[in-house]
Amino acid sequence: MIFPWTGCLKKIRAMSEQQEAKIAITQSNGRVSKSPVIARGAKSPTRVLQPAHTIRLRPDLGDSSWPGPSTGTEGLVSQHGITDRGLVRDHNEDAFSFFTIGNKSLYVVADGMGGHDAGEVASMIAMETVCSVIREESSRATDLQELVERAVQQANSEVQREAAQRGSDMGTAISVALVSDNTAYIANVGDSRAYWIENGSITQITEDHSLVAKLVVAGKLTKEEARHHPKSNLLYRSIGTDEMVKVDTFTVNLKKGGSLLLCTDGLWGELSDEEIHGICSSEKKCETICASLLKRANEHGGKDNITAVVVKVG
Length: 314
Known about the structure:
The chain has one domain (7-313): Phosphatase 2c, domain 1, CATH 3.60.40. The protein is 32% helix and 29% strand. The chain has eight helices and 14 strands. It has helices spanning 7-22, 118-137, 144-166, 211-217, 223-227, 265-268, 273-282, 286-299; strands spanning 24-28, 31-35, 46-48, 53-56, 76-84, 94-101, 104-113, 171-180, 183-189, 193-198, 201-204, 247-253, 259-263, 306-313. A six-stranded mixed sheet has the order 3-12-9-8-7-6, covered by helices on one side. Helix 2 (118-137) packs antiparallel against helix 3 and helix 7 packs antiparallel against helix 8 (286-299). The longest helix is centred in the middle third of the chain and has 23 residues, at 144-166.
């Protein structure tokens, strides 16, 4: 990805904020309602959204909610992550991490931008900041969605601080999932995605904050055209570009037999959702899934850094 400092993107960002100010989708007591307010306060500009879209590939083999343990993350069968610079880039600006904190598990994927050194520094700072905040506060937090959002906001501040010290235009996309019991609390900024995958469907949970994503929503591009668009890497929102950043947040009910995937655009930009679903559904081990996703992305060109974190739920 490249850093979005152009007049065009400033206009796109302004248009995006106007659109977002018109309507916000909030979730309350299991019902979806529309509200004219998008932020919970000036200091916490977070949107709680519905998943971007779901592709049904065939009838679900089972759709019962995973009951999960009363505490802990014992329902997670396995987890694995992988990253690769791809076949074109000369270095890797992606970063990922996952670990267990008490009865919770955290997963983070970040995709840096800003050129050699700056991009990889931005992604590492953002990832480490999110991990540090959640590691320190998760045991006493009463609102895990708010905790994830606050950790991403702190990551934004840290990347901005480092950029100012270096005099560098650096930034990063990020996708975060904090899993507790049978629920994943997800946040994203930029175009690193989170997917929920089941036997009969694949759901893109997060929303891309990119020029081409806006054009797809407006009906100007198809998803396939957007995937190969020369400006597909231009973002109107990312970590480190503004003093305050809007964070999209999602709550996903995990189900037995499903898989959670966090990945950078180096993966989803090379593979269709159907291909991702096929690999995640046909393989049993997360290590094999990650290796197959990476191999397929490189076979399709490997034009960007590739990172994937896979979590299987049992």
